[in-house]
Amino acid sequence: MSLLGLSHELPAFLSARRIFVVRKRALLVDMAEVEIEEFIDQNRHLATLVDTYRGISESEKHWKARREFLFRNINDFEDPHIDQLLALSMVWANNVFLGCRYSPDLLEKMKEMAEGIVVEDAPVFKTRDEIMKKKKQ
């Protein structure tokens, strides 16, 4: 059983993933050029599985962005590493929406993985040092 409790869905997920990989290679699809909704329409089973990863407390805005992060990167993670992708998607969302800070190496990896994702009205966070510097001026 996987950490997510989805062991019964993994064979179907892997099948959908293989179809996606074949389509991606055959059509040379670049997720940065394809509308995410178009991708979802073409990969309904994969989209349904990804939707099970939504957190109960995730707003529609947060989920939409994290879901796109998952779709853009799912091809790079094999079955036993899906949990790693889910963790990275949460780290990315926490950085973007909550201002959580992480190591420079991890932030660089997330930046590469999230390339092309546009988050409208993303909050802007200031560090304590930036706030203190402004108060002194």
TrEMBL record:
Start and end residues of each XRN2-binding (XTBD) domain: 50-137
Transmembrane spans: none
Residue ranges of coiled coil: none
Pfam families cross-referenced by the UniProt entry: XTBD
PANTHER family in UniProt: PARTNER OF XRN-2 PROTEIN 1
Family indicated by similarity: Belongs to the CARF family.
UniProt name for this protein: XRN2-binding (XTBD) domain-containing protein
Organism field: Oncorhynchus tshawytscha
